[in-house]
Specification:
Blueprint (H helix, E strand, L loop, with lengths): L3 E6 L2 E6 L4 H7 L23 E4 L6 E2 L9 E4 L3 H16 L15 H8 L18 E2 L5 E4 L8 H9 L6 E3 L6 E3 L16 H5 L5 E3 L3 H9 L4 E6 L7 H4 L9 H11 L3 E4 H25 L9 E2 L4 H10 L13 H17 L6 E7 L3 H6 L14 E4 H10 L21 H4 L6 H15 L19 E7 L14 E8 L1 H13 L6 E5 L17 H17 L9 H11 L5 H7 L10
Parallel strand pairs: 1-5, 11-12, 11-14, 13-18, 14-15, 17-18
Antiparallel strand pairs: 1-2, 3-4, 3-5, 6-7, 7-10, 8-9, 16-17
Helix pairs in contact: 9-11, 9-15
Length: 596
Amino acid sequence: MSTKINVTINGFQLEVERGSTILDAANEADIIIPTLCYHKDLCIAGNCRVCVVEVSGQKRLAAACATPCEEEMEIQTNSLKVRNSRKHIIELLLSEHNADCTKCYKNGDCELQELASEYKIMTQDFLRLAPMRNYTIDQFSPSIIKDDSKCIRCQRCVRTCAELQGVNALTVAYKGDEMKIATFFEKAMNDVVCTNCGQCVNHCPTGALVERNYIEEVWDAISNPDKHVVVQTAPAVRVGLGEALGMEVGARVTGKMATALKRLGFNSVLDTDFTADLTIIEEGTELLNRLKKVLQDNDASVKLPLTTSCSPGWIKYIEHLYPDLLENLSTCKSPQQMFGALAKTYYAKARKIDPEKIVSVSIMPCTAKKFEANRPEMHDSGFRDVDYVLTTRELAIMIKQAGIEFEKLPDGKFDRLMGESTGAGVIFGATGGVMEAALRTAYELVTGREVPFDNLNITPVRGIDGVREASVKIENPLKEWAFLDGVELKCAIAHGLVNAQKVMDAVKEGTSNYHFIEIMACPGGCLGGGGQPIPTSPEIRQKRMDAIYAEDGEMPLRKSHENPGVLKIYQDFLGEPLGPKSHHLLHTKYTPRDRF
């Protein structure tokens, strides 16, 4: 049987793959069919009906996203019947929507607003039939705001939370006119099993779900002459910020970003990649010491596999769903929180600044980082370690507010103290990046040789498969690591919490043989985080990933243990990895070194 079938769209004949939907066929023919509930990341729902088309021989209009093509099917995407129907559907959606657009955070980036503009919805004839209800706005979460008055009930958020993350914090409640998107017993999002990952925000077409923004608080800090404001930027931001400011997807804007931050008025522009490198030293040492205790000393109290702790969405997920496996987590804080603790201790001491006057701001691709910074244990500096977290999108707003022509900016550099980084720190932004960075360092510490992959590119850990496995055989190690001779270090990588569940179920059931696991809450890792530019899709995330690896390849240093700034901070301030000061500032709990 042929895999191709013939269809006609608006009088044009074309061949499409059998099983293609009408929407797929239209996209192939460069014909735009509007959608709202459809998203490439999610299953087909056909809820909104905005994508209706006319099919010859059928009395009712068909939803293009949910209707498969058939041989010799004749389709009209722009007939009078279709146009009128779409217009009425948009009017109906607007009739129940709080369309006070100028006060909406998503003004200018709302898919419903865009359709209303394209179809020139000048009046709302249905408004009198559906008066606006009294909705409440859930603002209790430090990460996400949920405003039901702007919800169009497309259920993208519900499918995202279920299909991509396996969390199910959001669901459909009630029926008919009373139907709404709700949490368990309609509790605040801060009080349910929500990981704050922000994928619902990334997939919401309107302003019903947005990040809680701290733009004005940061402007106030910058304007306060008594405050010294330091800013750190995560690796994924440099491949997303340009996109949020109108540049091509995956544009690398590291230098322009540094310049823009200085022009915004930050006193010091620093790099989260610095503490990403620091994380590798701490986490790599922790892994090696755990392996020593398990493989050489047969200490059954030490848990393997070791799992990464960089992703706050993943941390909240394991706390909710796998509390019995918490001892498998690395005790390392995330790079953001390591940076925050050092900003108000090491940085403050080096710059001779009262830490009470330091305001620590981070630019993150992640909404869960807002929650993480707000956790009560993140005060090891004696102060709140990170004061404000902005998303990539929030930074783009600030740059626009400041009237900065971003594309015309010259390339600047991060400030030197806590601004140096390596390619290993950069690749933290992609799924598999933490694993690759850790292997580059751990293998060399154990053997004295570079990891045996071409140009340090550990390709087995790269890619977009939800779960990936890799192994590195250790041969002829240094004398102190002789017990690892011949050991095949087995690793797993998962991104998206629904994939994390697969890996952790295997660990819980005892059917895995992993030594080290990297888990990132968001699809694609941080580059697909809940604070990155919208829209998102597999193709967009791949371009951002390509950009991250390209930046790594051009860095003069590509191994975390070669970062001169990291070596200096151990020499001048921290002492040794996993030492008392490191544990106090860089880990979530103090554990004596001989515990591992």
